[in-house]
Write a structure and sequence with these properties.
The complex is a heterodimer of chains A (about 425) and B (about 450). Chain A has 23 helices and 11 strands. Chain A has about 425 residues and is of the alpha/beta class. Chain A has 3 domains: about 100 residues, Orthogonal Bundle (Fumarate Reductase Iron-sulfur Protein, Chain B, domain 2), CATH 1.10.1060; about 140 residues, Rossmann fold, CATH 3.40.50; about 120 residues, Rossmann fold (3-Layer(aba) Sandwich). In chain A, the strands form 3 sheets. Chain A has a 5-stranded mixed sheet with strand order 3-5-4-6-7, with helices on both faces. Chain A is globular, with a radius of gyration of 21 Å. Chain B has 5 domains: about 90 residues, Uridine Diphospho-n-acetylenolpyruvylglucosamine Reductase, domain 2 (2-Layer Sandwich), CATH 3.30.43.10; about 120 residues, Uridine Diphospho-n-acetylenolpyruvylglucosamine Reductase, domain 3, CATH 3.30.465.10; about 110 residues, Alpha-Beta Plaits; about 80 residues, Alpha-Beta Plaits; about 40 residues. Helix content of chain B is about 35%, strand content about 20%. Chain B is an alpha+beta fold and about 450 residues long. In chain B, a hairpin with a 4-residue loop joins strand 15 and strand 16. The chains are: A alpha/beta (about 425), B alpha+beta (about 450).
Chain lengths: ~425, ~450
């Protein structure tokens, strides 16, 4: 065991140069959504980095304890975006999760999901298709405005969540795979809806396709798309992550296009930032292939505003809509003006800014499953800000945030609908 | 080792979740923002009300456990690093209530764990003003600010934390309640213990409630930025402004290195080719008076060799200028892995001499030093950029620090303007004071803390 710990320490040395940049000023405490709830130093970036440093210097023996702290993180990037020393916190944490996981091993349930299911898109899709047909037996509608459900029975995995049910038909069954040439729009794009849009919010995918068709943009949407890989990587499963990257890479390399668009902030940030970041172990040519595809990845609202320049300055007088900044769009991609521009130029929308619009919603992917109580407390702040804004609709640009906000608003019995910016845009066409 | 029964006792008192004894939790409270070795505490305790705090102190005292109170752990002199043998950390972030803001009598009562910026914002919401604004205010706690006598950018005109402390109620080493000061402007009841508590770095008592003075906010302000080709001219301008009987609320200096690092980080539009800039703000109760002062300041800057003086057009522009200054230290920190931030302070008339000496020291020891600071009150932050992993270079850093202190003292200055002494500077204390000063302080400490359990080793060593 001692020898193993030495091995782990040695592996963590590769992070040393990045970790030493943290001067322990502690300013991350002011922005970390998890710390705001738990007030524990081990939950904030400075504390986690100190623990990793001590693990790498063999000053600490309880690797499991460090792993636990490492997982107590939304990977929202609020700390990194506000870090005065520019510490690459997300790089450190993702790499550390892979290293610590390699040492500790993946929990059996995750292993089954990532390696047995997620990396096999056809099987994954079939299972969830079947699940969507039977989910009504165990769940019942909770809110009509939001469209959420809650459990009919006492199911530990659901708890008291008001979750978004799986769509009756996923996007790929509603909209066939396509490969069209551009019309007057001039551009040709690849479309990557992402798992949550495909399985829970196909209407978001349909809104995007409607908008692209309206603007006569050529679309390459191949069948057989796999997950972007972030759930596996966030759990430290680099092997599954690599498989997913490769699968998608091969699929999208088949065609030429100007941009690879997604309506999911997390998919965008993962494909644009994390794919190249984590490609260090790949061959030179593979790294180059990843880099060239990554460079084309763009958020759909950014495409609409920056490339198509659709936003026109119209002051809307319709329904009150507020906007929530997905962390992976604002903090990772620095995209926050474009979705607002789309809303402000929407004649059916009266845009209102909520307080702390860029405060994390608390979803954090599997963080929500592992630490639901903390996730819920963070989500409650978001809900309070949404309600205080007086908006009838909260718009965002990430389906994971949509799920989290739906859960919180539905549990509070608020009559506030949750929509993707693109849905509101598509309604005007 | 802490016995299982004592652990149980703490858990019964504070609740299981507020007693942290796992290895990973303890390691997360072993450091602060000072460049010093970490010390792992044996236990971390988080009381969530006053009574729990008192009982925690009493229990630690009975069991001879040295206590280090910690707010946000932003200390720059090691004051919140726990004690080596059986050290216990007492967290105050569970004691974070603003108990009262009194708009008639202009005071506020707070628990020690209230975050400075949140307090200042709440006070501002009531139309009042709490001026101390240390660089870490977004996270720092008021208890920590009082313990360190924290300063900030507004020190020149508005003073520092000590100027706002009206009362401190605290638990003594035995866990008995001591009250000092009060809510009235005049109060001469008993010894002036409140002020003894200010800057005591947790060595004399454990704060429970603090009473702060509040003031009416200034109604008008004007901010300016003056660029200089020669840092000595900037220093002379500072002296000239004060000599002309104008007291700006802020008078900050950034040298060329600092300007570039800040600009790189904030993109605030600073002049990267200037040898130094002064960020100056004047404020007051009437716009005409403020504008008058601002014009005089502009004139003085030009007369003393400023190559360009700009006045911020609006609140947003002003805010951006100051935001840049607030990021000076963090921005410097990006240049090299380790940042050694000093705060040697001199009488303001000695600023030109001090800055020259710092630049000479940087050259002598071949080090990168960026200097910025509160030039109006002589409180400079020579910031040494280094890599503590490079033993040879770090040795030169230590020599440079020694020399910086020697120069500051020779110019009639002090070791620390606002960061505290902690363990980082206690070895130099006698140089500035006398042997008798230290003995006197130690006797005082022994009298109120006979078991030597309140943050032992800080300030006066021992």
């Amino acid at each position: 065991m001692h020898e193993d710990l030495h091995q782990l320490a040695k592996m963590l040395h590769e992070l040393d140069d990045q970790m030493v940049a943290c001067m322990k000023c502690g300013l991350c405490q002011s922005v970390c959504p998890v710390f705001a709830e738990t007030m524990r130093e081990g939950d904030v970036a400075r504390g986690k980095i100190a623990l990793l440093e001590n693990l790498s210097h063999e000053m600490i023996k309880d690797a499991e304890g460090v792993q636990e702290k490492l997982n107590m993180c939304l990977l929202c990037g609020s700390c990194a975006a506000n870090c005065p020393s520019g510490v690459k916190v997300l790089d450190i944490f993702l790499k550390a999760r892979v290293i610590v996981n390699t040492y500790m091993g993946l929990p059996p349930a995750k292993k089954a999901i990532f390696q047995g299911l997620l990396t096999k898109p056809a099987l994954f899709n079939t299972i969830l298709d079947v699940a969507s047909k039977f989910q009504g037996i165990f769940t019942k509608p909770a809110s009509e405005v939001i469209g959420s459900s809650c459990s009919r029975i006492n199911a530990p995995i659901i708890g008291d969540r008001h979750f978004m049910p799986l769509a009756k038909k996923p996007l790929r069954k509603l909209e066939s795979a396509r490969n069209t040439r551009p019309g007057k729009g001039g551009y040709r794009v690849a479309f990557f809806p992402g798992c949550v849009v495909d399985k829970v919010y196909p209407k978001v995918g349909q809104a995007v396709l409607k908008a692209l068709t309206h603007h006569e943009i050529g679309v390459y949407m191949p069948a057989g798309q796999a997950c972007c890989g972030i759930p596996a990587l966030a759990s430290g499963d680099k092997e599954s992550f690599d498989k997913l990257v490769q699968h998608n890479l091969e699929l999208f390399e088949k065609e030429n296009f100007d941009y690879l668009l997604t309506p999911c902030a997390t998919c965008t940030a993962t494909m644009h930032e994390i794919w190249p970041l984590m490609s260090g172990n790949q061959t030179q040519s593979m790294q180059e292939r990843i880099a060239s595809l990554s460079a084309k990845v763009m958020d759909i609202t950014q495409f609409m505003v920056d490339v198509l320049k659709v936003a026109l300055p119209v002051s809307g007088s319709g329904i009150k809509v507020t906007y929530h900044d997905p962390c992976h769009l604002k903090k990772s991609m620095k995209v926050f003006e474009q979705p607002r521009a789309l809303l402000k130029s929407n004649p059916r929308v009266q845009f209102v800014e909520m307080a702390e619009a860029d405060r994390c919603c608390g979803c954090g992917g599997s963080f929500n499953l592992q630490h639901y109580n903390v996730s819920k407390e963070i989500g409650q702040h978001k809900r309070d800000n949404i309600v205080a804004s007086g908006a009838q609709v909260v718009a965002t640009a990430c389906p994971a945030c949509m799920m989290q906000m739906s859960d919180m608003l539905s549990q509070n019995k608020d009559q506030v609908a949750v929509k993707h910016v693109m849905e509101l845009y598509a309604e005007t066409l | 080792m802490i016995s299982t029964s004592l652990l149980t006792e703490f858990k019964n008192l504070l609740g299981k979740e507020n007693v942290m004894d796992s290895e990973s939790d303890r390691h997360a409270y072993s450091y602060d923002a000072a460049v010093l070795d970490a010390v792992i505490p044996e236990l971390v305790l988080r009381p969530t009300n006053s009574e729990q705090l008192g009982k925690t102190v009493a229990l630690c005292n009975e069991n001879k456990l040295p206590m280090t109170v910690r707010g946000a752990g932003t200390n720059l002199s090691g004051g919140t690093i726990p004690t080596k043998e059986h050290g216990v950390v007492i967290l105050t972030n569970g004691l974070n209530k603003i108990l009262e803001i009194n708009e008639q009598d202009l005071y506020a009562v707070v628990q020690p764990g209230v975050v400075t910026a949140k307090f200042a914002a709440e006070v501002a919401r009531r139309g009042l003003f709490y001026p101390p604004d240390p660089g870490s205010q977004a996270v720092s706690t008021l208890g920590g600010n009082v313990s360190e006598n924290a300063g900030g950018l507004r020190g020149l005109k508005y003073g520092v934390t000590k100027d706002y402390v009206m009362g401190v109620n605290f638990w003594n080493a035995e866990g008995e309640y001591v009250k000092s000061g009060g809510k009235t402007v005049k109060c001469v009841t008993g010894l002036n213990i409140s002020q003894l508590m200010v800057g005591s770095e947790g060595t004399l008592g454990v704060f429970d409630e603090i009473i702060f003075k509040l003031v009416p906010p200034p109604v008008a302000s004007k901010a300016m930025l003056a660029e200089f080709d020669d840092i000595n001219k900037a220093s002379e301008t500072v002296a000239a402004i004060i000599a002309n009987k104008i007291v700006p609320c802020t008078l900050e200096l950034l040298d060329n290195a600092t300007i570039n690092y800040v600009e790189d980080f904030t993109k605030a539009g600073l002049p990267c080719d200037a040898a130094a800039i002064l960020l100056i703000e004047v404020d007051g109760g009437h716009i005409a008076l403020v504008e008058d002062d601002a014009e005089k300041v502009v004139e003085i800057c030009k007369k003393n060799g400023a190559r360009r003086v700009q006045m911020a057009k609006d609140a947003a522009e002003k805010n951006k200028l100051w935001e840049a200054r607030r990021n000076a230290l963090p921005a410097l920190a990006r240049a090299r892995p380790t940042t050694v931030l000093e705060d040697a302070t001199v009488p303001r008339s000695q600023i030109p001499a001090m800055i020259k000496a710092i630049n000479d020291i940087a050259a002598k020891y071949k080090l990168q030093i960026g200097t910025f600071g509160h030039a109006g009150d002589g409180n400079l932050h020579p910031t040494i950029l280094t890599d503590k992993r490079d033993k040879e270079e770090f040795h030169r850093v230590e020599q440079a620090v020694d020399e910086i202190f020697d120069v500051a003292l020779s110019l009639g200055g002090t070791l620390s303007g606002e960061h505290g002494i902690g363990t980082a500077k206690s070895k130099w204390l006698e140089k500035e004071t006398t042997k008798a000063t230290i003995i006197y302080s130690r006797r005082l400490k022994k009298a109120v803390d006979p078991n030597y359990l309140l943050n032992p080793g800080k300030i006066i060593g021992g």
